[in-house]
Amino acid sequence: MSQAAEQVRVGKLSDIDPLGSRRLNINGLEIALFRLSDDEVLAVENRCPHKGGLLSEGMVCGPVVHCPLHDWRIDLRSGEALDPDKGCIETFDTLVAEDGTIFLTLNTAAEGSGSAESDSHIA
Amino acid sequence: MTNKRKKLVLVGNGMAGVRTIEHLLKLAPDMYDITIFGAEPHPNYNRIMLSSVLAGGASMEEIVINDLDWYRDNRITLHLGQAITRIDSETRRVYAEGGIEEEYDELILATGSNAFILPIPGADKEGVIGFRDIKDCQAMQEASRTHKKAAVIGGGLLGLEAARGLLNLGMDVTVIHINEYLMERQLDRPASIMLQKELENQGMKFLLKKQTEAVLGKQRAKGLLFKDGSMLEADLVVMAVGIRPNVALAQRSGLVVERGIVVDDHMRTNLPGVYAVGECAQHRGIAYGLVAPLYEQGAVLAKNLAGVPVEGYAGSVTSTKLKVSGVDVFSGGVFVEPEGARALSYQDEIEGVYKKLVVLNDRLIGAVLFGETSEGASLFAMIKSGESIAGREKELLLGLSADALSSGGGGGSAARLESMPADEIVCGCNGVSKGDIVQAIDGGCNSLGQIKGCTKASASCGGCKPLVEGLLQLYAGDAAVTVKEGICGCTTHSRDEIVAEIKRMGLKTVKEVMNVLEWNNDEGCSKCRPSLNYYLGMLWPAEYKDEKESRFTNERYHANIQKDGTYSVIPRIYGGVTSPTELKRIAEVAEKFDVPLVKFTGGQRLDLLGVKKEDLPGVWEALDMPSGHGYGKSLRTVKTCVGSTFCRFGTQDAMGMGVRLEKAFERMSAPAKVKLAVSGCPRNCAEATVKDFGVVAVDGGWELHVGGNAGIHVRATDLLGFVKTDDEVEQWASAFLQYYRENATWNERTAPWVERVGLEHIKEVLSDEEERKALQARLRDTLDQTVDPWKEIVSEPELRKNFEHLPVAQLVSTPGEQSGQDNSAGMDGQKKEESA
Ligand code: SRM
Ligand SMILES: Cc1cc2nc3c(=O)[nH]c(=O)nc-3n(C[C@H](O)[C@H](O)[C@H](O)COP(=O)(O)OP(=O)(O)OC[C@H]3O[C@@H](n4cnc5c(N)ncnc54)[C@H](O)[C@@H]3O)c2cc1C
Ligand code: SF4
Ligand code: FES
Questions:
Q1: For B478, what's the count of Cα atoms within 13 Å in the CB-facing half-sphere?
Q2: Which positions fall inside the Rieske domain (chain A) (predicted)?
């Protein structure tokens, strides 16, 4: 089984509206994908460090999303809450291919293999 | 890890004790194993803010200072709901009510105070409480739901704040005060009289020079009996006559106790290793009752415990502000001139402003401000610094602007700020010291907004703003940016400037506005983006394409987000009138989609709560009803009563009128939500006089009411006028709403807007029939462009996709075989910047 990062294909750029977001589940983890104004795609764990608000539902301003529940601001690159709040969530590396296919790198060794593989190993 | 750490126990999980621990953790994070016992079942919270919680301005969650994670992160053992009942100073152990015991090397007592309950007959009845903690606050909120008449005994700071809160909760409130003047411990006579007048205008009643003799009633309080034989009906009695240091435990445990636990300048009690801090402590004869001095004590104690040399605590001068009443009152230092002192005062009855300064030997020793208190913090700093104000008295009295005080005056005030010790608290609400602010400035903060953002200084009551600005000038020097406050941190432009510029230059997108008006934050924030989106839509109804990415979640997904990420769905039920068929359909949909909760809303319709996001389009499709817009800054409900259709008192068809108005205005976006109601007679069962636009039928016509609000601050409507026909009702309502749409600030409801621009002004505009018709036509044009959002989403896959999860991911490679994947176009596409 994989011991380090593995890469998964998660749809196309056109699946996400500009400044919008989509959710997806991998191995029981919910991930939010965001499309920034310059078409960069960033991925984070879909859980606000404050009280678990779904960040995918928040407003995107630059590389920052405002949590829909209490307006904490989370930096989508670092996963850190911006001042004056404190907290951090997991981020995932992404890659957008020329044809717009989005690839996502899952970081973990321990829990990162399982279902993604069995569900969908088509290559 | 090592067992070398000393054991520190804190009794009392309140403001002073935990503040001391916070300070200690900064100075010596690894020196102690810390255990905290708190009698209340809550983590450390901001007691000061209870007044705001009661008045509806803050929630219980918002006032928590340190949540449970904080204790965990700092490896503090916390025992909640565990009052310490015994201290054994021989074996150095404390014992809690619930059986837990703990050993200590150092022990801090920070047990605070108790509300003083007058020892009069009946004081133990149900419905008699103090105002001290969350429990009291909840009891008052609870009582306001079932009872009507409240009596607050005590016309001091606490009593008036309690009374204001109870007014907001809709109770009829009388304040009983033994003295002839309110807040006599902080205010002199003229200020006190001005305060009373203002509070009376707000609906508060007063019984002065009254001594309460007994609480009447059987099990629950029913009223009060006064010494002069008179009585007052009351089913809630709040005693706010003072506090008593909570010293029972100390007394029992062999500590020296007078009014409070006696401590020296280092907060030491008579027992070795035992300290006291906060309201329970008595220092040089004084037990304080405000946080600023308690924080100073805490700073001294923390240094002691950390082994940092410290001079000792020398006592404090205190200042107070009345919060939450909408009246600005400030009092600091000595406000009644002692022998040999001079008092200078200034009073303007028309503007409602009063100011008094007390000067002794050329030094300012006290001040009272009423009506305009922005100079409070600066004056207070002068009182504390003891600097000479010789020759500047008049200047100070006759109102120097705040920045003249903090930057003008030659070296005087800069010197004062400079000499202020680093741990002196500048922002009392958030406990931010001068040191914290200077550190933030050193760390790169160079505007008030930034300092507010990273320290929370001046983020609550704002009273310390001039001081923070002064510190900024002093320590940031040329780097300091004084920013004119715009609609948010991204711009310095005001609402009116922005709207004028959009019109003048014909700007058509949010992005364009931000570019042209030189936003300092390229993509704006969650405050300006929705505002701009609204202004653009209001100004260009036909051309502007609404930007859903600049709308809040609720308005983007056309449902209300819940705390668990599900949504709630409220279909439109015009005028609250439904039918068996419609009800059956709603019931079927609820069953089909396993909706966890179906509830009648306060707006006379049904709410399906807990709907999964991916089910929303399906639910809407199955309901086949228009959106109720229960989520938007738009028309919400039009409540109606039965009216003349069935009711024996009804004079007009209220339901018919309500349905007509709701059909006329549905889908109307607005600066804030808009609620209407129509009642069939002056009994007003539809509560039209607390709505944005309320219609009350009278014989021969309709009364039109505007600017009501039943939310955070209850405001009854103002009477706009009287009309005879149904068409006129619709015309006036249209004109009023459109005028509001065109002129109010985003997020400003009609109640504050009407107060801001004045009813007379609105009447003047609307009394011109041509103008009314023009406004009505503009609103009609706007509404004609709108479509039902639910129907639109249901039928458009491109919109509908946003409700679905992306399909399950497909694994394409593991690291070693990165290049080996086949089925996608070149991976040499743009490589994304990796996060640090
Ligand atoms: C569903 C409902 C409570 C209920 O179960 O009855 C409700 C639910 C919410 N109200 Fe309300 N309000 C509801 C009737 C009211 C009423 C009563 C009324 O409309 O007759 C009021 C007082 C009347 C008024 O507005 O003047 C009311 C005054 C508020 C306020 C205070 C507004 C103010 O200007 O002071 C807020 C906070 C806000 O808007 O910022 C609020 C905010 C909210 C929010 C949207 C909080 C939020 O942002 O998530 C709640 C959404 C709950 C949810 O998750 O669905 N709700 N809310 C009611 C929906 C009525 C409807 O059919 O549309
Ligand atoms: C409604 C209200 C408004 C106020 N407004 C202001 C204001 O505007 N400005 C201002 O400066 N001050 C204000 N105050 C006063 C301020 O809140 C207090 O001065 C401050 O909270 C005192 O801090 P403390 O730590 O000494 O006591 P507290 O904060 O009361 O903490 C003491 C804690 O110890 C616990 N305790 C007591 N005995 C035991 C025991 N045996 N074992 C375990 N735990 C125990 C108590 O339950 C309590 O939680 C206000 C107070 C109230 C109630
Ligand atoms: S429904 Fe309204 S009153 Fe009830 S908890 Fe939500 S916002 Fe508060
Ligand atoms: S849950 Fe995200 S801000 Fe509160």
A1: 0
A2: 8-103
